[in-house]
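Supplementary Methods, section 5.1.

A reviewer requested that the exact input to the structure prediction be made available. We therefore reproduce it here, unchanged from the version used in the analyses.
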Amino acid sequence: MRFHTRKWVKPEDLNANGTLFGGKLLSWIDEEAALYSIIQLESKKVVTKYISEINFMSTAVEGDIVEIGIDVIKFGHTSISLNCEVRNKMTHESIVTVDNIIMVNLDEKGNPSPHGKTKIEYVKDRLAKKEEEKGKS
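The structure derived from this sequence is encoded token-by-token as follows.
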């Protein structure tokens, strides 16, 4: 799993028990899944369709640094399925896991739209490909 984003747990992220508020964490996960999907599908119109069971395994407190990891499960015709783990950056202890997040690509009218992707692509590879194509013209 690749961990793409780090978040610093601040006072405004805490619940009444002084630990990381689950709703805040879910917001971070949803945002990370959207950003990852937008980059992979090369589309700005991507929405969350489904988030499976969420397994809270431990907590975080003020001052902790958490990191969010995303992996692709599969590419669908109009969707991308992901899984996610959030862990403590310093201890690598899992805070939460989400087995399945489905993000859907939309057209300009807001309908599911084919994205044409079948595998993970990295930005550095896309840039190298564009440079190679530019050199051929």
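The first strand starts at residue 2 and ends at 8. These observations are discussed further in the main text.
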